[in-house]
Amino acid sequence: MNETATLVADWLIVLPVVLALVGAAALLMVRRANRVPVIGALLFLLGIIACEIGLLIRVVEEGPLSMTMGKWLPPFGISFTVDLFSAAFALAASVVTLVVVVCAEAGRDADDGRDAFHAMVLLLLAGVTGAFLTGDLFNLYVWFEVMLIASFGLIVLGGNPLQIDGALKYGFLNFLATTLFLLALGLLYGLLGTLNMADIMRVAPGANPAALTGIAALLLLAFGMKAAAFPVNAWLPAAYHTPAPAVSALFAGLLTKVGAYALLRSLVMLLPASRDLLEPVLALLAVATLVVAPLGAIAETNLRRAVGFVVIGGIGAILSGLSLASATGIAGAGIYIFQAILSMTALYLTVGLIEARTGAMDTRQMGGLYEASAPLSILFFVLVLAAAGVPPFLGFWPKLLLLQAGVAGSAEGWVGGVLVVALIVNAILTLIAGTRLWSHIFWRNASDALPLARSGRRLRLATSAVGVLVLAIVALGLWPNPLIEGGQRAAADLLAPSRYLEAVGLAEVEQ
């Protein structure tokens, strides 16, 4: 046992999760008090963001950090281990959750104050943050369960038949993915005798490579379902359009990105030899996801379902980085996860504002919104360009890194060249899908559409909140150097995790 007291500064590693869990419990108890839940949620979220900014600064200055619970030395205790990717993703998740809570008030009535919405939002954030910060695979499973419970509660909030239908599709596929993940954990523990991530890296090279590859394939299936990669992606457009727009935005920004992050962590850092064997499969999945998803967006007339296919297309870009697995490719995949947390949340929130103004979910019933709300049209158009990867917006830079990695990898085999073509095709098709939606919603003659609702104070507040998030996306696109440099450093730590092992305290054991 470890009798050394934990430094006060090290509590920053777990404070974001603790604050989210405590906040969820507190807001559940005061949910009947008028305005208290939303004020409490904002205060807790500001506290979480402050902790995560401090944590990110420490990781930038000192490298990966770790804290193991219960005074048990690794690999026996549950470890929280933070590197640049996990700290940046956790911060981005908290920021977009804050924006979602502000925007959600635009669509909530006074009678909605007893539905525990804010408590479930904080519980969902606790699961997402725990998944990003954990250093133990079984603990990752626990946080997936926390996310699933909270998201299931949020998706059925309101209880209309469409939401129940979406919840069944969402719940069944995600329960199946979680079950597959648990099965993979059992097999991995039986093979290696550990589920601590740092310890897995230490002992995996001596294990049976065929057995490890089978487990890696099972993890790919489980996390691929969570991330909505092709061909296990049908649940996302069938479910994400059913809850309130703010809930859809939270799901689109966070849930699939946790699945993509789990793929990045498990296949690149923990089981790199198995990833090498699965590279052709990863490449084919990436290409299929990149091409099929925007085609689905072009074919859709339901606005939120169409945007759901755009979310899926982004997962294809992340998978292409996993397929290439060079420092540039992994940096591109990681930065893409970061930008997708911001841009997909903002895109869904903008869609919610469009639905509030038009009173419709089908683009065939929309039109004339450009004249009524030019700022809303600009927000939507900028986010379409960012999703397609058009310079100088934030989505361009990770795709540029992925293209560079693909061109460099094309000299070694077919994977790099095919992924380069697929990434370019995805950008073109996403741009076609997005501009088609924009023209139907904003540019088409208003006489063909439903009457537009007036923009009240709440809608203006929500539009301003989304505008701030979009400004951040534009600013990061215009000044990408810190993000690119951070992504390259984080990718180096994934590919050569000596600093990660040292932070956990297993570097000496490895030697």
Automatic annotation (TrEMBL):
One of its GO terms (biological process) is ATP synthesis coupled electron transport. GO terms for molecular function: NADH dehydrogenase (ubiquinone) activity. Coiled coil: none annotated. It comes from the Bacteria. Keywords: Cell membrane, Membrane, Transmembrane, Transmembrane helix. The keyword Transcription does not apply. It is a multi-pass membrane protein. Residues 135-411 form the NADH:quinone oxidoreductase/Mrp antiporter transmembrane domain. The chain crosses the membrane at residues 12-30, 42-60, 80-104, 116-134, 140-159, 171-192, 212-236, 280-299, 306-327, 333-354, 374-394, 414-438, 459-479. The keyword Translocase does not apply. It is found in: Cell membrane; Membrane. GO terms for cellular component: plasma membrane. Its main location: membrane. Belongs to the CPA3 antiporters (TC 2.A.63) subunit D family. This is NADH:quinone oxidoreductase/Mrp antiporter transmembrane domain-containing protein. It comes from Devosia soli. The lineage of its organism: Bacteria, Pseudomonadati, Pseudomonadota, Alphaproteobacteria, Hyphomicrobiales.
